[in-house]
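User: Just a sanity check before I run the rest of the batch. Below are the structure tokens for the first item. I only need the designed sequence back.
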């Protein structure tokens, strides 16, 4: 049950709010149980609560206890500590594998859909097509930002554990890095537009 105090209480009559407490009086947080409370620093930010139902994973995270989140992390760690596959044989994948090796994690091999890469090595690790290995029950970390949705759809029919690179970096406290082409997108787009105008 949501506990709303002060000016914002009328706002919640129009939608089903998630199950946690909010206490805010004129921008000052009221005394409440901080274990199940969402604190808003500004009355104008309350609008975001109306959108939470669009993000079921976020609602589940907010509703879950600290113990269940840490037990989920432990389950993922346990699966990955037995070795895993990295889907995406490219610069970001190579950087991620180096991080994993330095952290003592075992990467079995790269998986990639590019036939030109199959049977070759990237930083000493073999690149294989995903169809060459029985991936049922295996753990796979996707390192491609650009093709991650396609890869996830491709792996849906296989009973395997799929994680994205950022989850693993967070869980094992590894350094985060964005894909270089994402960082350069604005710059490249600007150059192309600029060349059309000149």
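Assistant: Here's the designed sequence for the first item:
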């Amino acid at each position: 049950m949501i506990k709303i105090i002060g000016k914002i209480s009328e706002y919640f009559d129009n939608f089903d709010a998630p199950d946690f407490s909010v206490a805010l009086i004129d921008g000052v947080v009221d005394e409440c149980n901080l274990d199940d409370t969402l604190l808003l620093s500004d009355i104008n930010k309350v609008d975001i609560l109306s959108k939470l139902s669009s993000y079921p994973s976020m609602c589940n995270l907010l509703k879950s206890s600290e113990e269940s989140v840490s037990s989920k992390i432990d389950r993922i760690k346990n699966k990955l500590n037995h070795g895993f596959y990295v889907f995406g044989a490219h610069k970001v994948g190579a950087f991620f594998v180096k991080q994993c090796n330095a952290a003592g994690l075992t990467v079995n091999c790269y998986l990639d859909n590019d036939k030109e890469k199959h049977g070759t090595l990237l930083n000493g690790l073999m690149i294989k097509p995903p169809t060459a290995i029985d991936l049922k029950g295996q753990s796979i970390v996707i390192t491609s930002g650009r093709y991650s949705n396609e890869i996830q759809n491709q792996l849906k029919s296989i009973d395997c554990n799929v994680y994205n690179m950022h989850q693993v970096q967070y869980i094992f406290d590894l350094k985060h890095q964005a894909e270089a082409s994402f960082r350069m997108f604005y710059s490249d787009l600007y150059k192309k537009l600029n060349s059309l105008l000149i």
